[in-house]
Amino acid sequence: MAAPGTTAGFHDAWERALGELEVDVARAEAILAQAHLPGTAVVAVERWRPPTGLGPLPASLERRARALLDRQLELARRTGEEIVRGRRQASALRAMRTGAAAVPVYVDVQG
Question: From CA 81, how far away is CA 94, in angstroms rounded?
Fold first, then answer.
């Protein structure tokens, strides 16, 4: 591993940062792909925090970073669609529920 202050160290730090972000995106994609399955538990996802002190993205990593951004944007789009779909399903379920059980309007006391 190269020293952090060197050009190679700078590139390695960006490689690690992109790798970590790719793992997070893959995890989010897997969660979204399985979210509709019965019995799927809600998964807490840790909030991503950008690494500090990296400086500008090396030109050699631009294609990889753009591909990762495209995956993130697609994931955001699909997540929005799933939220809308879930709200529609919840609304349909509420509409299908029957009202409260029939309650007598009066009581026959003379029988």
Answer: 20
Is the separation of the CB atoms in 24 and 70 below 8 Å? Answer: no
- Note whether residue 84 is domain-resident: yes
Contacts of 72 (CB under 8 A, 6+ apart): 25
Residue 61 per-residue DSSP state:
G
> Is residue 1, in this structure, part of any structural domain at all?
no
User: Tokens for 74?
Assistant: 């697609």
For the stretch 65-102, pLDDT in tens is 999 999 999 999 999 998 899 899 889 888 888 766 66
Count the residues in the chain: 111
- Is 109 inside a domain boundary? no
Tokens representing 39 are 């019995």
Q: Dihedral sign for Cα 72, 73, 77, 78, please.
A: negative
